[in-house]
Amino acid sequence: MQLYHHPFCAHSRLIRLALGEMGIEPELIEEHVWERRAEFLMLDPAGITPVLVENDGFVVPGGDLIAEYLDETRGDHLADRRLLPVDLYARVEVRRLTSWFNHKFFAEVSEPLVREKVYKRRMPREFGGGPPEMSIIRAARANIRYHLQYIGWLLKSRNWLAGERMSYADLAAAAHISVVDYLGDVPWDEDEGAKIWYARIKSRPAFRPLLALTVAGMPPAPCYADLDF
Amino acid sequence: MQLYHHPFCAHSRLIRLALGEMGIEPELIEEHVWERRAEFLMLDPAGITPVLVENDGFVVPGGDLIAEYLDETRGDHLADRRLLPVDLYARVEVRRLTSWFNHKFFAEVSEPLVREKVYKRRMPREFGGGPPEMSIIRAARANIRYHLQYIGWLLKSRNWLAGERMSYADLAAAAHISVVDYLGDVPWDEDEGAKIWYARIKSRPAFRPLLALTVAGMPPAPCYADLDF
């Protein structure tokens, strides 16, 4: 199985975590979507990471779709560790929170931070590169605080974000937070419950490849790989 | 069943079309999300339309989730008119194109046009109201052309957007296009195949309530409700 990804793409990280939980090690291909490579656009005309290519060549594009597809093809094997529960009502809650992080947290926190601090720095000017906009970074750093409070609030009555078992909701939240944590922008003093939850998910074996990740010229924040942050 | 919606929210329109295809007539409640009503935020903390409330009070928030939920609870009844096919590979293609219109077309066309031409005009200045930004409107009007070409290209080898049967992909595309068509911004001379497909879906009974819709102070473009546009 091949996974086209980018180390700062949180949606790619979510799929890497899910594959890790399923015991699958894909061949990783780093894709710079802003280059709009013709071969990549042939796989997925939308041109965004992640894109999964099955052994038989079948292409599944986009984090949301890959998550559903992996559950449909490999969910049974996971039994009670299934990432999308079978129960109708539990599915809605898992999908609601997965979508919360993949879309709302992404728009308000992880996308603007990565765009301003990473992509604009690495992209040539003709693709939109340039110096970061500090007002956008400040807004994203303020926004993350209420998301951490929301995580803490959910965990007052639950073991994991969407219920009693770990699910895609936890992996999505952790994937987006891990990207921001690499950049050193998670205020871990904001919510004790959120911090304990993140320490728990961060210590799972599936998380190790993400913690080992270092991007040339852009080392992670000191707390990033620390399990006892 | 209750549906919190907004007439210019394409995601709400997609669900209205899906419910129409299922023969379900929900109680419609128009929600102005920018007012951030406390009762609405209690139903869905993300605070966006559409939100479905089942007869028993169960809440399903967001267009993507409601589509999956309706298929899981009512899909069987539709038999070969099912909007999300059962086949694993066909599901990926339906979800890919549904996501294309709900996210990509939304970001590049329907969201900016509705924001600039409708919401900014109707919202008080303290909620972000004000005069439209013409450069954004021009960019969205340019972007829609390649989406119409893509629809036309898909239909050269298929009966409907994602395959031989009508699916959520068609309803999502039609929902987003219908919002733009209300504003008079669909260049129907761009692609003959796309126009024929839209005429076909526009003539379905489920489409009638959308075509009958008129917003006070903002009448639809002349071609909007015309089945022979």
UniProtKB/TrEMBL annotation, chains A, B:
Pfam families: GST_C, GST_N_3. Residues 87-221 form the GST C-terminal domain. GO terms for biological process: glutathione metabolic process. The keyword Transferase applies. It is an enzyme of class 2 (transferase). GO terms for molecular function: glutathione transferase activity. Residues 1-78 form the GST N-terminal domain. Its EC number is 2.5.1.18. Keywords: Transferase. This is Glutathione S-transferase.
